[in-house]
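Appendix C reproduces, verbatim, an entry submitted by the partner laboratory led by Prof. M.T., so that reviewers can inspect both the input and the predicted structure.
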Amino acid sequence: MNDDTAGNTIRLIVEKPGSGLSQSEIAEEGDDLLALEGEAGSEPTESTEIAETTLDEPQLPARLDHYLLARMPGWSRSRIQQLIDEGKVLVNGKTFKPGQKVKGGEELTIAIDAPQPLMLEPEDIAVEIIYEDEELVVVNKRAGMVTHPGAGVYTGTLVNALLSRIGPSLKGINGTLRPGIVHRLDKDTSGLLVVAKSQTALHHLQKEIKERKALRSYLAVVEGNVESDSGTIDLPIGRHPNKRKEMWVVENGRRAVTHFEVVKRAAKYTLLKLTLETGRTHQIRVHASYSGFPVAGDIVYNRKTTGTLPARHKLGLSGHALHAAQLAFTHPVTGELLEFQTAVPQDMQSLIDRL
């Protein structure tokens, strides 16, 4: 759904306990196309289709607001309560109070107002373009740059920079706030990112990621000595139970798979190559932290020694030590396999050289 002027209507069925209704019967499973190592904490905007995400099923009976909080990842408690108070949440066609309970079998209808149109301004910001043709552009995003506007940030983003460079090519592709954006990188993650310049390219590239045909590999410096030369982390990821702006390994999360190989070991750090099989929000950072080897300089998920800004700066890093180093996909028109690699930024390379 890419209509910037139309609001969303979301319908959810409250599964009866023991009914055996699968999540796929409630919602279509879909990859986190706009949450690949994406910024957490922002509420869905524009064309976000909550009905196309895998939904957590809380224990019933449950308060309506608590139920929706679990079923609508990324939405704040206050926003959900506001929707209920404004009568935009109906339970079997009737308004409910936030504290009223759902028991199972109810149909919930949530009306989301259309966002106000927003005109983004092109900005003369330096951006490194690795490849460009009529259908797409591949960029090397620097650490510290937000991929696209949202969550109160509307300037200084990669989208603002691209509007200045290739603005006419992006008009009307994937909405107003994220024109052409196929996937995204965290603000503090550097590296390769592909942007579509046509609707055909957008759909093709999103499908490649969803079907796990696109190759996305990263280099990361993590704290600790990873003993296994290679391996796979297969742990589900969902919203942190207590920190709603963070993700974590949770029992009822979505399946998340990260493959890793050791590139270099040192006394306190390990350089890893990590390849995504799935693309959950903050997947690499969460998997690394949960496994006891947090990314160096990660101020959100690193609970060890370098998870603060002063510690990051002491390492000489402008972001965390995570870089999207390799990207491969088939061209949406020619079918040619396109492969791209980019070196880690100088600050991260300096850290690697000191290992």
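Confidence is low (pLDDT under 50) at residues 1-6, 19-56. Additional entries are available on request from the coordinating office.
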